Amino acid sequence: MSSEQPSVPHVSGKREVDEPPQHGINDGSSTPCPKHTFKKVDEDGKDVTRDESLTNILISKCVKEDRLIGAIVSLGEATAHIALLLQNYVEHTYAGSQNSSGDEQLHLDIDCDKAVFHAIREAGVFAVAASEETPEETDVLPAVIDKNDEKGPWYSVGFDPLDGSSVIDANFSVGSIFGLWPGKGLLGRTGREQVASVVSVYGPRTTLIIALPSGSRDAGESDVTFEVTLVNDRSHWEVSRDKCTLAPSKKVFAPGNLRATNDNPKYDALVKHWISDRYTLRYTGGMVPDVYHMFAKSGGVFSNVSSDKARAKLRLLYEVAAMGLLVECAGGVTTHESEDISVLDLEVDDLDRRLGVCFGSKDEVALYKKFMFE
User: Fold this and answer.
1) Which distant-in-sequence residues (6+ apart) come within 8 Å of 143 by Cβ?
2) Whole-number Å distance between alpha carbons of 350 and 299
3) Beta strands in 144-218 (DSSP E)
4) What pLDDT band is residue 95 in, cutting at 50, 70 and 90?
5) How far apart are alpha carbons 157 and 317 in whole angstroms?
6) φ, ψ for residue 111 (rounded to 5)?
7) pLDDT digit string, tens, across residues 279-289
8) Cβ contacts of residue 185 below 8 Å, gap of 6+?
9) 105-142: per-residue pLDDT in tens?
10) CA 49 – CA 39 distance, rounded (Å)
């Protein structure tokens, strides 16, 4: 950790008047924080078992490209490293910098970002990476490329290394979000082009939920979303949900950015309808657990709607596209908050493009559109 970014004790969450005005980003170097190494995970002889177990699962799911299997397995390794970081997380200290959203960066945010960069550089199948903490297209190609690997295929990844850091002090579940694109580059892509997306959840269990569109699987195989759990002292991945599907309707709702109901009358009317129609509220303030809950319960609806006074903060590249692929591969529906268009058809025309969304069961998203679009 750089000496130019001293620890700032968490007091009020506000930048102190004498604090240097860094607008910090990680540099994508993958250099581990000296306080949190990966040695316990990597030197106990269990990393091979972990790799092999997830590899075998992906083969059983008919992933047709070996290098895509390697890419997803590397994200499983990053997840195992982050789980260890979170397990040993005690001090809530700021790094004295901000991410692209203007949020104060915790040392933990940056440590998790470095854990991901470390894993994807080790994989040797990625060309470009960008994250919420490192919001620029970063070259992660191997320093030396074997002649047999020159043609790839190569992959690019957009990710949020620690979604939910604002609720982590309450010991709520948090997560990581990864979207994988074929080729070199992220700008100008759409979520529909993703070859896979992966979301990690760190709670009582450490899990991955993985979306594979039909184009990434053997001929004749359809879209699939499934879950694996890290078991046996982080040594092995095991299938815990063979197929996640979202039923057409489910009266469970997770309404994000509720402040927008104050000056968005349509959103206000929708939330009141959910309450009056006796929907069950399941909301933590973290996008990962709130969307993930729908897969656990086979349905529901998640919304994050903006207004003039409460703008949406979700990023298309780092959060929305990957989550959208999970939902649609599970039979659900996604939409932009104010346009009748799937989030997977929106272009990443800016790495920091932000938007409001609605995800969920087909009939529940149709109800959202009725209130918000008509």
Assistant:
1) none
2) 31
3) 155-163, 174-182, 196-202, 206-212
4) low
5) 9
6) -60, -40
7) 999 999 999 99
8) 127, 128, 137, 156
9) 788 999 999 999 999 999 999 999 999 999 999 999 99
10) 16
